[in-house]
């Protein structure tokens, strides 16, 4: 037969091995855990939808960049050697003829000749 001391020791051992109601007060119940799980799943779904919209935006921007690049390429092909043509005009008009005209105007008006 168990003595009172044995019973107390068994109860103490039992409470060490198994959780009591008081021990479980701070732990979430199954219902609370399910609610938290559902909240996390809902947040993940929002994140996934945001990622999908971002991917769509990125595709749109990439398409716009390709269109701009194509337009730039077409413009470059259309203009051809326009830069060398404008360089020739600049060299002929600004660098050669303009100083000659300024010199003639200065002579005509009687201004002192500016240094070239």
Please describe what this structure looks like.
- The structure is a single chain.
- By secondary structure, this protein is mostly helical.
- The chain has 2 domains: 28-80; 81-116, no CATH class.
- The chain is 79% helix and 0% strand.
- The chain contains 3 helices and no strands.
- It has helices at 4-17, 30-79, 82-109.
- The protein is rod-shaped, with a radius of gyration of 44 Å.
> What is the count of β-strands?
0
Can you write the helix and strand succession as a string?
HHH
Mean pLDDT: 82
Helix percent reads over 70%
Enumerate how many helices there are, as a single number: 3
Low-confidence parts: none
What is the number of independent domains? 2
Class from secondary-structure proportions = mainly alpha
Question: Main beta sheet, described?
Answer: none
């Amino acid at each position: 037969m168990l003595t009172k001391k044995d019973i107390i020791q068994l109860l103490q051992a039992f409470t060490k091995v198994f959780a009591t109601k008081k021990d479980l007060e701070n732990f979430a119940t199954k219902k609370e855990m399910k609610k938290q799980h559902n909240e996390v799943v809902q947040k993940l779904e929002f994140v996934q939808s945001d990622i999908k919209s971002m991917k769509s935006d990125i595709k749109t921007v990439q398409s716009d960049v390709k269109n701009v690049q194509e337009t730039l390429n077409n413009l470059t092909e259309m203009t051809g050697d326009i830069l060398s043509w404008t360089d020739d005009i600049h060299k002929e008009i600004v660098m050669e003829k303009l100083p000659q005209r300024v010199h003639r105007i200065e002579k005509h008006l009687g201004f002192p000749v500016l240094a070239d």
